[in-house]
Write a structure and sequence with these properties.
This protein is mainly beta. The protein is built from 1 helix and 7 strands. The strands form 2 sheets. The protein has a 5-stranded antiparallel β-sheet with strand order 6-3-2-1-7. A hairpin with a 3-residue loop joins strand 1 and strand 2. The chain is globular and about 40 Å long.
């Protein structure tokens, strides 16, 4: 299963959760060559969000393989409220 950011999934214990992002964690990484030694992949998610995004203290991080064992298929895409850049009204 591919996990997609800004998508809501059904979690076995938490109900619906919002995936904020899926990230690679490297042991070493060379920005010039764009290559590195991958340590792990993690998913950032939350069970507490509103139209503006996740609640500040509620984002959790779990290894992707572990997360996949407790979630089902995607429920829907989350479409948050977009704010104009500062100064624009």
């Amino acid at each position: 299963m591919n996990l997609t950011e800004n998508t809501i999934y059904q979690h076995d214990e938490l109900g619906e959760v919002l995936v904020v992002g899926v990230h690679h964690v490297f042991e070493t990484y060379d920005p010039d060559s764009g290559d590195g030694r991958l340590r792990s992949r993690v998913v950032r998610y939350t069970a507490e969000w509103d139209d503006y995004g996740p609640m500040p203290s509620s984002v959790r991080t779990t290894p992707v393989d572990e997360f996949r064992t407790v979630v089902g298929d995607a429920v829907r895409t989350w479409e948050g409220v977009e704010w104009p850049p500062n100064g624009d009204t």
